[in-house]
Amino acid sequence: MEVEDMDEKEVEITEENPSPLVPPSSSSGHFKLFDKMELLEFKDKYIIKALDSSQQGFSISRFDGDIQPLNSGDSLGTPDKTSTIFGVIGTIRLIAGMHLLVITSSKEVGKYLGFPVFHVQSIKYLPCYKALKQLSPKEKKDEAYFRNLLRVVESTPGLYYSYETDITLNLQRRSSLAPGWISRPIWK
């Protein structure tokens, strides 16, 4: 296997002179990533929508975790609680059902290839199930154990993210990827 010496090449990567290895900004495509969103908590669902575009977002059922995009004709009503979030980490299915994990606080800590990198200060998991009463005692015990693990994740420092670039790949790995992959939006 041949290894190329990176010291022989000078590569300057700045915001004014981006690398061809860096995916284009998400704002250049049709899909826009939002760095601040509004979390609306209702008795039957959670709604996550963009602060600057009230019809862009999704709802997730508190009973079964079903995720649906917001429709322009949806009447939202008055939520029980409203808060600002900075991202959706994803969903996780435990024994009783689905949980939605959201970033409730973050801080910009630096730049990677000219793109801002954020440190997650706090996360929150939102239960999306109604089946806890139907679980056996053993399943309830297992569910409590897994929920405690989620609480540990909530309090564990060290989660970083970027809205605009993949921070899991180093420059050497990026250079070996197919050109089509590099041009894909970060959310894909």
UniProtKB/TrEMBL annotation:
Where are the residues of the annotated region Disordered? 1-27
Q: Which GO terms describe its biological process?
A: phosphatidylinositol dephosphorylation
Any one cellular component term from GO for this entry? endoplasmic reticulum
Signal peptide bounds:
none
Per UniProt, what is one GO molecular function of this protein?
A: phosphatidylinositol-4-phosphate phosphatase activity
| Chain ranges of the SAC domain | 86-176
InterPro entries membership:
SAC_dom (IPR002013)
Compositionally biased region (Acidic residues): 1-15
Q: Which PANTHER family match?
A: PHOSPHATIDYLINOSITIDE PHOSPHATASE SAC1, PHOSPHOINOSITIDE PHOSPHATASE SAC8
Q: What is this protein called?
A: SAC domain-containing protein
Q: Which organism is it from?
A: Opuntia streptacantha (Prickly pear cactus)
